[in-house]
């Protein structure tokens, strides 16, 4: 609630509550004609919500106080229910009482101070203003339970020391050491200290990441906790990225940027790159549908285990691992994902009816990736309108023909599918040498053989046999 303020010790103070109107102690005024629905709707009693000429008094504040207390104890916004119940005598639907409308939040007040204060909350939520206890009685109940004092004592200030720098944080006495570690890391937005490297000490004791509470460890208000880090010998950084101790740092030129003013890492093949250049090159290879990482300069293959300590972030390592694997499955093995569960499936044979073993024998069409609808045992026609297989088949059979430049070969279908990945390619002029944009496979547009189709790079002007129109298998 915006009307609940916290002191430096995290004690709750309520402001601008209910009527927020000063009334002298010796005044006989208890009710006023005021505006409809003062304050926040969910915290207002029924008498303040009438549409015409509302009359209400100080019990409004008592009701609102109970709603705020309910908000604090349940740690949820106390939204009243709008349901109705059936009266057992009249059989008619009647409105719930204000307490019944907030029953789910009251049910959470089951232990400690919450359970002890629950009867008072119920009294304050009474529909009849005259049945609500005076605020003095509510205040005395709070004092008896010592809730205010316990809430104030629950929060402490801690001085966290990072060498020459101190930082103040606030935590509950019941917080664990594990939570303390996490909060300290979260406060260091631009720090290079990793969670697993950080350690803390207090009063001659090392603070381990355990479930022990601050109170159990004897940590008190304004205690000074020293942060230190545990690092392997040889740890090093380039461009703000941590490099493993087994990686050789050199002054060799970056083979991609050709810069020589930044330290570089020696790669498995002997060439050098900065961590950022390596991250860029790996992403480029993944985006180019490669299934392995090779050197930009000498094309030697690198193992993923050889790259893991070379300054790559967690996300960059994930991109490398998943990207290369997905390229292998999608573009080498031509796998597709089950449209229901996402399982990768490699198709064997000429049929298009696929059964997923993970989805209780769910069947789908390999071409349009929709559920198989055709009855019977057929495996070619899925029964879905505009299935992509038939669209492509019709296009391949009905497309025009072209005459190749240079070789002057005529009667060549002007639309072909890449023999390697199946991507469609249209002929717009030039020689018969084609390079697929999808997988970079090079082939002859006429005979569909791998380029050079006759074993010589000058085959672009040589005659060869026109392959028949392709079909979708």
Specify the biggest β-sheet: 5 strands, mixed
> What portion of the residues fall into strands of 2 or more residues?
15-25%
Number of helices: 11
Uncertain ranges: none
Tell me the distance between the termini. 65 Å
| Computed structural class | alpha+beta
Adjacency order of strands in the biggest sheet: 8-7-11-9-10
Evaluate the radius of gyration: 37 Å
Would you write up a description of this structure?
The chain is an alpha+beta fold and 473 residues long. 24% of the residues lie in helices and 20% in strands. The strands form twelve sheets. Strands 8-7-11-9-10 form a five-stranded mixed sheet. Strands 14-15-16 form a three-stranded antiparallel sheet. A two-stranded antiparallel sheet has the order 1-2. The longest helix is centred in the last third of the chain and has 19 residues. The two termini are 65 Å apart.
Describe the secondary structure blueprint for this structure:
Layout: E1 4-6, E2 12-14, E3 31-33, E4 55-57, H1 59-74, E5 84-86, E6 93-95, H2 98-101, H3 103-106, H4 112-124, H5 135-145, H6 147-154, E7 155-162, E8 165-172, H7 177-187, E9 198-202, E10 205-207, E11 223-229, E12 236-238, E13 241-243, E14 249-250, E15 264-266, E16 272-273, H8 275-287, E17 293-294, E18 301-302, H9 304-307, H10 314-332, E19 336-337, E20 344-345, E21 353-356, E22 362-365, H11 388-398, E23 401-402, E24 412-413, E25 415-417, E26 424-426, E27 433-435, E28 442-444
Parallel strand pairs: 7-11
Antiparallel strand pairs: 1-2, 3-4, 5-6, 7-8, 9-10, 9-11, 12-13, 14-15, 15-16, 17-18, 19-20, 21-22, 23-24, 25-26, 27-28
């Amino acid at each position: 609630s915006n009307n609940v303020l916290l002191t430096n010790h995290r004690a709750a103070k309520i402001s601008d509550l209910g009527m927020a109107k000063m009334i002298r102690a010796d005044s006989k005024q208890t009710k006023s004609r005021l505006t409809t629905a003062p304050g926040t709707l969910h915290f207002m009693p029924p008498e303040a919500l009438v549409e015409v000429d509302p009359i209400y008094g100080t019990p409004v504040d008592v009701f609102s106080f109970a709603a705020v207390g309910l908000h604090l104890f349940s740690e949820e916004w106390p939204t009243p229910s709008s349901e109705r119940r059936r009266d057992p005598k009249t059989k008619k639907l009647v409105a719930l009482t204000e307490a019944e409308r907030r029953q789910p939040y009251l049910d959470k007040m089951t232990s400690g101070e919450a359970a002890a204060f629950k009867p008072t909350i119920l009294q304050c939520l009474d529909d009849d203003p005259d049945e609500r206890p005076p605020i003095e009685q509510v205040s005395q109940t709070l004092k008896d339970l010592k809730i205010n004092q316990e809430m104030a004592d629950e929060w402490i200030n801690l001085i966290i020391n990072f060498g020459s720098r101190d930082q103040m944080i606030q935590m509950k006495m019941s917080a664990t050491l594990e939570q303390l570690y996490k909060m300290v890391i979260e406060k260091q937005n631009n720090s290079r200290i990793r969670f697993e490297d950080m350690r803390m000490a207090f009063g001659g004791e090392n603070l381990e990441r355990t479930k022990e509470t601050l109170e159990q460890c004897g940590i008190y208000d304004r205690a000074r906790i020293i942060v230190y880090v545990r690092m392997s010998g040889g740890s090093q950084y380039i461009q703000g990225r941590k490099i493993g101790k087994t990686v050789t740092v050199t002054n060799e030129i970056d083979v991609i940027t050709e810069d020589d003013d930044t330290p570089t890492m020696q790669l498995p093949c002997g060439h050098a790159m900065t961590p950022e250049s390596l991250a860029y090159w790996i992403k480029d290879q993944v985006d180019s549908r490669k299934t392995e990482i090779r050197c930009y300069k000498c094309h030697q293959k690198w193992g993923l285990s050889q790259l893991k300590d070379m300054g790559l972030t967690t996300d960059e390592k994930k991109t490398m691992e998943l990207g290369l694997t997905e390229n292998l499955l999608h573009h080498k093995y031509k796998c597709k994902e089950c449209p229901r569960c996402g399982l990768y499936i490699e198709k064997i044979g000429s049929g298009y009816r696929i059964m997923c073993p993970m989805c209780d024998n769910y069947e789908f069409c390999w071409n349009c990736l929709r559920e198989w609808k055709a009855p019977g045992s057929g495996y070619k026609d899925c029964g879905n309108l505009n299935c992509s297989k038939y669209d492509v088949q019709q296009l391949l059979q009905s497309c025009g023909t072209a005459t190749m430049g240079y070789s002057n070969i005529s009667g060549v279908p002007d639309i072909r599918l890449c023999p390697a990945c199946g991507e469609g390619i249209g002929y717009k002029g030039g020689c018969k040498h084609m390079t697929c944009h999808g997988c970079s496979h090079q082939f002859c547009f006429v005979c569909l053989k791998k380029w050079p189709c006759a074993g010589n790079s000058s085959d672009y002007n040589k005659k060869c046999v026109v392959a028949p129109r392709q079909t979708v298998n």
